[in-house]
Specification:
The protein is an alpha/beta fold and about 280 residues long. The chain folds into 2 domains: about 170 residues, HUPs (Rossmann fold), CATH 3.40.50; about 90 residues, GMP Synthetase, Chain A, domain 3 (2-Layer Sandwich), CATH 3.30.300.10. The protein has 11 helices and 7 strands. The strands form 2 sheets. Strands 3-2-1-4 form a 4-stranded parallel beta sheet, sandwiched between helices. A 3-stranded mixed beta sheet has the order 5-6-7, covered by helices on one side. α5 packs parallel to α6 and α9 runs antiparallel to α10.
Amino acid sequence: MSRLNELITWFSTNTGAGSIYNGSAGSRSRVIVAFSGGVDSAVVAYAAYHALRDGALAVTADYNTLARDDLEEAKRVAREIGIRHEVIEYDELSNPAFVTNDGMRCYHCRDELARHLIAVARREGAVLVVDGTNADDLKDYRPGIMAMREHGIRSPLAELGICKDEVRAIAMEAGLSVHSKPSNACLASRLAHGIEVTRDRLRMVEEAERIVKGLFNVRQVRVRLHADNIARIEVGKDERSMLFDTGKLDTLDERLKALGFRYVAIDARGYRSGSLNLIDKR
């Protein structure tokens, strides 16, 4: 059995009975998929849709830390899959525990997300709520995963031992356009711990990343915001040479300083997932 068929079968097997969300055979939605539009959640949504058709509902949270481009991408990918899609809105910046931006920021983010997903599940009478956590994610420091588990959110990719490379292979097999899409995360992940999360800082980082992509035509970009408004730019390791244009670097420096950054630095090592966590541990 292929990994894709395993995933589809997982949904058929795990959505047959009622649950804490008061699901029943006549419920409108059997499963709620936490959906960002990235490759992981797209593969999960694809499998849920092909197992349950209209019994699957993808839910994207627009909580003020999601880039506008990512929101539009999530809508597009949902249409591509054919799955029913709902965007829920709430203000993550109204949560003091989140905006403090300590080492548990992701926990507070996912704790709130889980509560909103469960509210949708109860409204729909769903059997379960799932996310796109894969087996590789379990190897990293991810307090957000702990929060989701505490609320009973399940992760079919992780449960089946499907790693990131396999996720991309499944996405390619399914013909999903996001099969090679670079990994992404919410905008708050760009702020070094201890820097308060504000709407202005999030928009500053979002626009800075848009500028980097536009100037250098790179796909994987993180603009990390450090104390004193220092921008540390990471691009994909295989894209670092694309930055070697002094004229464009001068333009980059000028445009990012116009956004409010005091200094603009290029990280020589390139993009690393969770690089701010690595700095905190030094």
